Amino acid sequence: MTAKSTATILLFLVGSLVCSRIHGRDAPSVVNDHEQCDPSDIRISTEATGQVVGGQPEYKVTIDNQCVCPQGDVVLSCPDGIPSSAEPVDSSKIHVQTAGLCLVNDGLPIAKGSPVTFTYAASATIDLTFYGATSQCLTSSTTH
């Protein structure tokens, strides 16, 4: 075998190895850097709108996902439930799933930059804290 043939074969083998590492099962996943969403990636904010509905102050709640991966089955701790409000709360945005736990967005994923918002009117704000979610990049879960 000539030196040129040997060099060509070696080059082919190295190229094949590199391609298999890039495209094969050993290749790093596109989402490796972001496969785990952190509980702090779900941000919940409540602000007074300045409006009064039925004699009660109105509040706007925003539930935002800061993770690059969409997160579904977002559950919040809501120990007092969702109080009856002079302004009905859209149950597709949030509803009591079980005692003390509320499901957001009917369990549908919340993508980064596409927050779920709802308003309600009550004498006090609803106590909402993150409880759990499922990352949609991989089938991993994030809980508190």
UniProtKB/TrEMBL annotation:
The keyword Disulfide bond is assigned to this record: no
Biological process annotations from GO: cell fate determination
InterPro entries: TPD1
Signal peptide (UniProt feature, chain positions): 1-24
Keywords: Signal
Protein name: LGC1
Originating organism: Zizania palustris (Northern wild rice)
